[in-house]
Amino acid sequence: MINQLSWKVGGQQGEGIESTGEIFAKALYRLGYHLYGYRHFSSRIKGGHTNNKIRVSTEKIRSVSDDLDILVAFDQETIDVNFEELRQGGIIIADEKFKPVNPDDTKAKLCVVPFTKIATELGTSLMKNMVAVGASSAALGIPLENYHPIVKEIFGRKGDKVVESNIQAIEKGAEYFNREAGGPIDDFTLAPGDGKQRMYMIGNDAIAMGAIAAGVRIMSAYPITPASEIMEYLIDKLPKFGGTVIQTEDEIAAATMAIGANYSGVRAFTASAGPGLSLMAESIGLAGMTETPLVVVDTQRGGPSTGLPTKQEQSDIMAMIYGTHGEIPKVVMAPSTVEEAFYDMVEAFNIAEEYQCPVILLSDLQLSLGKQSVDPFDYNRIEIRRGKLMNESLPEIDKNEGFKRYENTPDGISPRTLPGMKNGLHHVTGVEHAETGKPSETADNRKVQMDKRLRKLRHLKFETPVHIDAKHERPDLLLIGIGSTRGAIEEAMMRLENEGVSVNHAHIRLLHPFPAEEMKPLIEKARHVVVIEQNATGQLAGLVKLNVGGRDKISSVLKYDGNPFKPAEVYKECKGVVSHASHV
Amino acid sequence: MPVTFKDFRNKVRPNWCPGCGDFSVQASIQRAAANLGLTPDSLAIISGIGCSGRISGYINSYGFHGIHGRALPIAQGVKMGNRDLTVIAAGGDGDGFAIGMGHTIHAIRRNIDITYIVMDNQIYGLTKGQTSPRSDMGFKTKSTPAGSVESPLSIMEMALTAGATFVAQGFSSDLKDLTSLIEQGIQHQGFSLINVFSPCVTYNKVNTYDWFKEHLIDLNDIEDYDPHNRVAAMQTLMAHNGLVKGLIYQDNEKKSYQDIAPGYSQEPLADTNIQLTEDQFKALVGEFM
Ligand SMILES: Cc1ncc(C[n+]2csc(CCOP(=O)(O)OP(=O)(O)O)c2C)c(N)n1
Ligand code: SF4
Ligand SMILES: [Mg+2]
């Protein structure tokens, strides 16, 4: 019996690879296993190699695995492309139809199953994915009854006959595999799951659900990979709450429409990726200058320009912090797990309204699209705070003065009224303005208003600006990361610790304003600091050096080939830093 | 006490040049608002950047002076957030037909119930006199010293082809007519585009008040002109090279975006309770289990 295993299905895009993974995963997470998925896909809609890798474990995992135990192949390309990843002793389960060839049978065993033929005999070749699911389940020894409710949920609408033949396809696939392989393979038999019910979702689902929990009623957005699922979820959900998604003509309209909606008093936001965020730069500055709450989600993908639109990267860090002209208060937060993505989204709106400024929620492709099992979210953790938003009963104002929307208060945050409110009338402009909002270019006023705006974030309350795992007072290594690399870093850390290297881990959750206070002692006490990030220029390392220092002991581990970090890669690079250092 | 146009005045002195056409647009908006019985609290004017864009600061109402070319998406967001507000977007010809043209076309076809007033002076005023998409060919400006070599946009025709439900053109000299067009625009259920010939007395020495008086055809003077006939509207515009004033076209059949967006609340969204109930939350979570 084993505690974790990696399974991958591959074929041509548009061939049902997605649904194969989906159904297999459903049975597993309902049995109480923890799952972590990774989709490899290209910008093509049909054709092109695609694969879906799922890691299954009896314990919580937050990273892709280093290697692969089982590869399910619908074509030879899948075998050729993924063979290297297979571990010694792994198996390939392949469709007989393409006459699969095993590149090296001393490494992996090939088990040929007639996916297409069995499916066709049962009525339609479309069910070949069900046959593959059946064969996979047989290898793992998963009882097939688990699929009955799942198949009913998916195909129930199409009638009993369709349900019945899909179940048969699963059973036939399992039977065939068992005959060929002589029953479940010991090496692949998983210890039982804990039976706990979890959610199975991508980060974008959590972000979108977080928006609903935050009370969002308008999303204005322009489609882009890997952000579109957020919009898709809300297109379905918002109308049920009286709200709406508006697909705008571009991202400038998306951001400015969200600004207009927030100004009117409704919680609104937009979500995009690098190219869209570049277009929004001026709008984000407008939100900062007019102190209008605004939430923008950036699901990072490979840049620059169109870059690697379907691949993992974390290269928008600097652009998100600095990407507008002039100087504004702005918050950039970076969830590192699906749970955090949900709760952070609610908090993003609270912060945007409390501090009356733009908030950027920085995700990355692996966090946004990697499907994983998650403990059900907690209703009691959802809190809505709207800061100094005034209610209707306001004292009468002098008509010629208007309401002091930009009153110079000690904390820099001014009372906010909404259009429609009696006695709250004021002007808003991106031009420098006085307390009433009317344009003013005097030197004195400029300084007062600039200081007021920038003062707002001085006492920003943020629950966990850095996720710190520091067991050691003076560790050999401090690993610093951000976003979806958290799991890979945690696993690398475990391996290093097992080898006697003492390691602390700091995962940055609040990127701007930078949590220098929290980071300083951690860096000072570590012998070496390794910043692990998915870009080519070490942007996060640069920020650490800028805000905290420690230049002489910081090194970078970078990856920018489009794929997420694997634990072994982080481990190897960090190991290199330690052993190199011990030689000098 | 009934509202009068004075309720929409504030003490801010416009920094427009004496004689600028935008003064009349300001006055017309104030009068139209008063005539319709609006209150300053219930009116939001969203403007772009340019001499014209300053208008939101010169009217006693809620106002948002945004960024160049983006008055329309901001205004649409305001209206969608609070459908009870009267929302006017305003700006220049550069703002709406150059940098913001994408938004103009899409606001027209989206048909959210706001009124868009363009102060069209065929020039960039604020940046001191460069050519605009509305400048005539051969028009000499700072950026086209030898005369513009690009064709001007036929904006009213363009609006018709984009599916506009309310298209009108006014002239700064005719305060009464302009006020009436703005009133009709505000009352129209859907997106209203009102292009106003609003002379720049400083940088446009060709398209002056006198020039417009000489060239503009009043649609009221065209016998049997029917503003509900799209084909006739297009023909009239083409026949007169777009130099007409009055209500050009109105479609009272097509429903506004707010009225057809599925599920969209009848109550202003800004007033609704946003806290999820535990049951709603559990249902959302359950979908992923
Ligand atoms: C993004 C951006 N580009 C350029 C400018 C400079 N700018 C300000 S107003 C303007 C054009 C003004 O022309 P128009 O919109 O016709 O307004 P008018 O001044 O004529 O009323 C320009 C180019 C700016 N403010 N923002
Ligand atoms: S420059 Fe022209 S548009 Fe600007 S205020 Fe003066 S007259 Fe009006
Ligand atoms: Mg102009």
Automatic annotation (TrEMBL), chain A:
UniProt EC number: 1.2.7.11, 1.2.7.3
Keywords on record: Oxidoreductase
Top-level class of the enzyme under EC nomenclature: oxidoreductase
A GO term for molecular function: 2-oxoglutarate synthase activity
Pfam families found in the cross-reference section: PFOR_II (PF17147), POR (PF01558), POR_N (PF01855)
Highest taxon above the source species: Bacteria
Domain Pyruvate/ketoisovalerate oxidoreductase catalytic: 14-175
Domain Pyruvate flavodoxin/ferredoxin oxidoreductase pyrimidine binding: 210-450
Keyword Oxidoreductase: yes
Domain Pyruvate:ferredoxin oxidoreductase core, residue spans: 476-570
Annotated protein name in UniProt: 2-oxoglutarate ferredoxin oxidoreductase subunit alpha
Gene source species: Scopulibacillus daqui
From TrEMBL, chain B:
NCBIfam families: PorB_KorB
UniProt protein name: 2-oxoglutarate ferredoxin oxidoreductase subunit beta
Residue ranges of every copy of the Pyruvate ferredoxin oxidoreductase beta subunit C-terminal domain listed in the record: 200-265
Pfam families per UniProt: PFO_beta_C (PF12367), TPP_enzyme_C (PF02775)
Organism of provenance: Scopulibacillus daqui
A GO term for molecular function: 2-oxoglutarate synthase activity
Thiamine pyrophosphate enzyme TPP-binding domain ranges (all copies): 49-196
Cofactor(s) for this UniProt protein: [4Fe-4S] cluster; thiamine diphosphate; Mg(2+)
UniProt keywords, alphabetically: Iron, Iron-sulfur, Magnesium, Metal-binding, Oxidoreductase, Thiamine pyrophosphate
Family annotation (SUPFAM superfamilies): Thiamin diphosphate-binding fold (THDP-binding)
EC number: 1.2.7.11, 1.2.7.3
InterPro entries for this protein: 2-oxoacid:Fd_oxidoreductase, OFOB, PFO_beta_C, THDP-binding, TPP_enzyme_TPP-bd
